[in-house]
Amino acid sequence: MSKQVQTQEAEAEARAAGRRIEEGAERFKQATSSAVASTKDAVERAADQVEESLHRATDKAAGAATRATDKAGELGERGRAAYDRTVDRADEWLEQARDYVREKPVQAVAIALGAGWLLGRLLRR
Description:
The protein is mainly α and 125 residues long. It has one domain. It has 2 helices and no strands. The chain is rod-shaped and about 150 Å long.
């Protein structure tokens, strides 16, 4: 074979190898693009799920905070009502004691002296 034929064959083989390389590079590019696209889709789906979960958690937390606020308000009202009843009861007892002292001043003084004497004996020990 002549050198010219060998050179032509080598050139043909080089062109064929170049085409195979280009085809392989194109297949690699397409596979990479496909992998990137599917990864992007998976990341977007995961981000959507995370966002939905965060919204649900935020809604639950807001609901719990609202219930806690309502319960605290209710307990505050009940506490105020109990305080008011206690103050009213104390005022009634004080008024009863004043009425008793007005009606029976001697007995009231005797009871006060006896209570003071008893309290003094108890505290001395």
